[in-house]
Specification:
CATH topology of the largest domain: DHBP synthase
Number of domains: 2
Helix content: 25-40%
Oligomer: single chain
Radius of gyration: 19 Å
Structural class: alpha/beta
Number of helices: 10
Bound molecules: threonylcarbamoyladenylate, magnesium ion
CATH architecture of the largest domain: Alpha-Beta Complex
Largest sheet: 9 strands, mixed
Length: 330
């Protein structure tokens, strides 16, 4: 059984850093809170550590993992920053932005963490996890702390329910305030490419850089640019139906705003991502409500339309993956 360690007081935090470091030094993964989702973290420089992440998640093959750093200075030790990437790092770190950058030669990041690519996705998280990395002294590779293909965890209890039998320590930082994973960008030939929408809105990136954000091709001849971005992901057991305007009595409803969805009063369960139509609130509730709708015993989950602007882009991306046909890994 995993030990759940709170970080409410300074004493708790010191205890959590000591316990997490002990696990990391034994090349095992530890569950850590970030502002986006809980991560399953291990030493990004050590092969057995990275393998233990994959084994724990039951992920069938290696995808490149995001390497978490304490700050920009630490990141510069491992990767080469062009001026736009540096501008983004200075504006948004610590925070929910991952920047894909060329690896420095002999950087020490293990090729298992980058799936052998010559680039690395780096992010500096807010709070406890940055402190843990600073104290540990090495970057932490961390995907979301869930079994492969399942919904990302936004509370320590989500992690415990899924992986509690397989890991030793879960650091409990409370509910993740952002609630969807980081935005992933890559600067190529002076252009900013969006590899995954997430917790930083594309508009905010455009405002800081004065440059248009280019959406990655999701189909056609272009290779998948963020290789972990496969169709079926975030899969609840119940089927997911998007842009619902009505709900049946066998379904759970995930609503948004004050719009009227017919059948609401007889739905199996009803959740509203944000009665006021606030997309940040909706993002922070998304994964928890998907899990709760799934646990309601409903045969399906009907989800109301979410505006495709700002954080709605990341919310709709995750919902489309939750609704995608099953059978592809994530
Ligand atoms: O908010 C987050 O980003 C969370 C927390 C724990 O930090 N992490 C997360 O990791 O979502 P994960 O493993 O679920 O997603 C990592 C994504 C994958 O889609 C992967 O393909 C992409 O990052 N990625 C990582 N390194 C890359 C690289 N060098 N080039 C392109 N894509 C990369
Ligand atoms: Mg994930």
């Amino acid at each position: 059984m995993a030990r759940i360690i709170p970080i409410a007081t300074d004493t708790d935090r010191a205890e959590a850093i000591a316990a997490a470091t002990d696990v990391l030094l034994r090349h095992r993964p530890v569950a850590i809170p970030t502002e986006t989702v809980y991560g399953l973290a291990a030493d990004a420089t050590h092969p057995a550590s990275i393998t233990s992440i994959y084994e724990t998640k039951g992920r069938p093959r290696f995808n490149p993992l995001i390497c978490h750093m304490a700050d920009l200075a630490m990141a510069e030790h491992y990767a080469v920053f062009d001026p736009i990437s540096r501008q983004l790092a200075e504006a948004f770190w610590p925070g929910p932005l991952t920047i894909v950058l060329p690896l420095k030669e002999n950087s020490g990041i293990h090729p298992l963490a980058t799936a052998g690519l010559d680039t690395v996705g780096i992010r500096v998280p807010v709070g406890f996890t940055a402190d843990l990395i600073r104290s540990f002294g090495r970057p932490l590779a961390a995907p979301s702390a869930n079994s492969s293909g399942r919904i990302s965890p936004t509370t320590a209890q989500h992690v415990e329910a899924d992986l509690g039998q397989k890991i030793e320590v879960i650091v409990d930082g409370g509910p993740c305030p952002v609630g969807v994973e980081s935005t992933i960008v890559k600067v190529e030939d002076g252009e900013i490419r969006l590899l995954r929408p997430g917790g930083i809105e594309a508009d905010a990136i455009e405002a800081v850089t004065g440059k248009a954000v280019i959406r990655a091709k999701v189909s056609g001849t272009a290779a998948i640019e963020a290789p972990g971005m496969l169709a079926s992901h975030y899969a609840p057991n119940a089927s997911v139906r998007l842009n619902a305007t009505e709900v049946s009595s066998a379904e759970a409803l995930i609503a948004f705003g004050s719009g009227d969805i017919s059948g609401t009063s007889s739905a199996k369960a009803v959740f509203n991502l944000s009665p006021d139509g606030d997309l940040a609130e909706a993002a922070s509730n998304l994964f928890d409500f998907l899990k709760r709708a799934d646990a309601s015993g409903a045969t399906g989950i009907a989800v109301a339309a979410i505006p495709d602007e700002g954080l709605g882009e990341a919310i709709n991306d995750r919902l489309m993956r939750a609704a995608a046909p099953r059978g592809t890994e994530g």
